[in-house]
């Protein structure tokens, strides 16, 4: 016979909440740095805005998806973060051009011609360089890319999401992801070519 006192519902709820808070803490420690790099690049170096977007995404994740597993949090978090970034970009576009209220704002359209590209399942962010470069140099080169190319590159290369998951996060087709990612790689090769003067010049 189990003589241990039964836990009250409030104690159970408190324990579950504590577990969620602990998971969220570890999750935040894991993704915050990379998410900030992504948002700083997308907002052209606005650190304060980047921090706000990341923090708001964490809050939304906790409010709406606390019952999900940690593994499920990763694509959910970046989907939320992408939506918040797009909202911020629309507001900035309207602020800079009040007349944009009367027409649809095009933010790095995904309606580009899809390229026939063989996708890599596990891209390496430094695969296209024959020598190591600093994170700062890569981040600066990434910041010069169009935002959608930045997102495709960082979600695929840094977060390791597959094409299907990245397309879901970015709310676009898999073909668009492949195209954005391919163009990002080509752009980075050009931007960082001075660091890799003897690298191969073969096309992907």
Write the layout of secondary structure elements.
Layout: H1 9-42, H2 47-65, H3 70-96, H4 135-143, H5 147-158, H6 163-170, H7 174-191
Helix pairs in contact: 1-2, 1-3, 1-4, 1-5, 2-3, 3-6, 5-6, 5-7, 6-7
Distance between the termini: 68 Å
Fold-level CATH name of the largest domain: Arc Repressor Mutant, subunit A
- Structural class comes to mainly alpha
Report the CATH architecture of the largest domain: Orthogonal Bundle
Could you say which overall geometry the principal axes of the C-alpha atoms support?
Answer: globular
The whole-angstrom Rg is 20 Å
Question: Residue ranges: pLDDT <50 for 5 or more in a row?
Answer: 1-8, 100-107, 197-204
* Count of helical regions: 7
Provide a descriptive summary of the structure in words.
Residues 1-8, 100-107 and 197-204 have low confidence and may be disordered. This protein has 204 residues and is an all-alpha fold. The longest helix has 34 residues, at 9-42. The radius of gyration is 20 Å and the shape is globular. It has 2 domains: 13-102, no CATH class; 108-204, Winged helix-like DNA-binding domain superfamily/Winged helix DNA-binding domain (Arc Repressor Mutant, subunit A), CATH 1.10.10.10. 62% of the residues lie in helices and 0% in strands. It contains 7 helices and no strands.
Summarize the model shown.
With 204 residues, the chain is mainly alpha-helical. Helices cover 62% and strands 0% of the residues.
């Amino acid at each position: 016979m189990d003589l241990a006192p039964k836990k009250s519902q409030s104690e159970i709820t408190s324990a579950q909440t504590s577990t969620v808070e602990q998971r969220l803490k570890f999750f935040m420690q894991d993704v915050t740095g990379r998410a900030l790099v992504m948002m700083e690049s997308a907002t052209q170096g606005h650190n304060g805005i980047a921090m706000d977007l990341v923090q708001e995404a964490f809050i939304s994740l906790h409010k709406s998806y606390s019952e999900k597993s940690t593994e499920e949090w990763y694509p959910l978090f970046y989907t939320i973060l992408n939506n918040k970034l797009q909202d911020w970009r629309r507001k900035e576009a309207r602020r800079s051009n009040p007349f944009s209220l009367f027409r649809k704002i095009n933010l790095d359209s995904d309606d580009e011609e899809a390229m026939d590209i063989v996708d890599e399942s596990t891209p390496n962010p430094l695969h296209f360089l024959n020598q190591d470069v600093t994170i700062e140099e890569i981040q600066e080169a990434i910041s010069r890319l169009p935002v959608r190319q930045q997102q495709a590159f960082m979600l695929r290369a840094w977060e390791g999401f597959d094409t299907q998951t990245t397309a879901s996060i970015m709310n676009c087709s898999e073909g668009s992801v492949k195209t954005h990612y391919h163009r990002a790689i080509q752009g980075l090769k050009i931007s960082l070519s001075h660091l890799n003067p003897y690298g191969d010049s073969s096309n992907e």
